[in-house]
Amino acid sequence: MVFGVAGVPTNFKGKFKNLFEWLGERNLNGYEIQCVYGFKISEENKRIILENQKNGFYFSIHAPYYINLGSLNAQVVARSKANMKEGIELAKSINVTRIIFHPGGGHENTENGRKLAIKQLIEAVNEFTSEIDMGNVLLYPEIGGKTASLGSLDEIIEICKNCKYCYPCIDIAHLHAREIGSLTSKEIIKSKLQKIKDAIPDKFEKIHFHAYTINYGEKGEIKHLHFGDTMPDGSVGMPNLDDFISVLKEMNVDPYIISEALDSQELSAQYMHDLYIK
Ligand SMILES: [Zn+2]
């Protein structure tokens, strides 16, 4: 059971080394390292991470935003492959077993264009993962929040089916946003998870979740919402985190959930943790 935050919460004002005590006081034991501008972690922070693993903290790494294995530009793909290899070495050096990455964009946004981009991404991943020692590192392609980005639920399943080292990162807010508000009931959330379980049963247990509420428009994601914020029309923030947690309990999923709620990740993560153990 892992509940955590992505990056240093804005409400925490201390030093990085003191963050974990603060998270622990909130019943949180997960931290997603935001390498969104490059796979780099200072030596001091590496030591802090290793130390806190001994205290029961779980760390994952979010890959840089510029990684784009689905790009039409061969140079971008080659560079992304090299970057991913660096990320895997970095993860191994600090005993991190989950790297989250965005499948990318820049392809032709047609059915055929998307198919080609996913096929290319699968080939690229299978290439670089066969060229190095993966250790215990697994790669998590994440559901994209915008309708045009790669990473629909079907595409994530397709990647995980075809890449030995890929496991699903199900960002339920992104899923809700890119499907223009699809997760309107507990039954629908359950059907999405069931679909994953049926398609890739051996990978279901290690799903990585991102969960928070989100505002969206006709092109998908607009903005992550603050924990407790209502939607612009005054209705409760969606997707409904109570429904989400209750589905996990019904399906006996051991949760690994990172919150990305705007400026309030720890509140939302603690809320989900408390609901889960109730
Ligand atoms: Zn992400």
Q: In words, what does this structure look like?
A:
Helix content is 44%, strand content 15%. It is α/β, with parallel strands linked by helices and 278 residues long. It has a single domain, classed as TIM Barrel (Alpha-Beta Barrel), CATH 3.20.20. An eight-stranded parallel sheet has the order 5-4-3-2-1-10-7-6. The protein has a two-stranded antiparallel sheet with strand order 8-9. α3 (74-93) packs across α4, α4 (111-131) runs parallel beside α5 and α7 (186-199) crosses α9 (241-250). It is globular, with a radius of gyration of 18 Å. The model has no long low-confidence stretch (mean pLDDT 96). The chain binds zinc ion (ZN). Residues 62, 100, 102, 142 line the site of zinc ion.
Search tags:
two-stranded antiparallel ribbon, eight-stranded parallel β-sheet, 278 residues, binds zinc ion, TIM Barrel, alpha/beta, 10 helices
Task: Explain the layout of strands and helices.
Elements: E1 2-6, H1 16-25, E2 30-34, H2 43-54, E3 58-62, H3 74-93, E4 98-101, H4 111-131, E5 138-141, H5 153-162, E6 169-171, H6 172-178, H7 186-199, H8 201-204, E7 208-210, E8 214-217, E9 220-224, H9 241-250, E10 256-259, H10 265-277
The chain binds zinc ion (ZN).
Zinc ion binds next to loops.
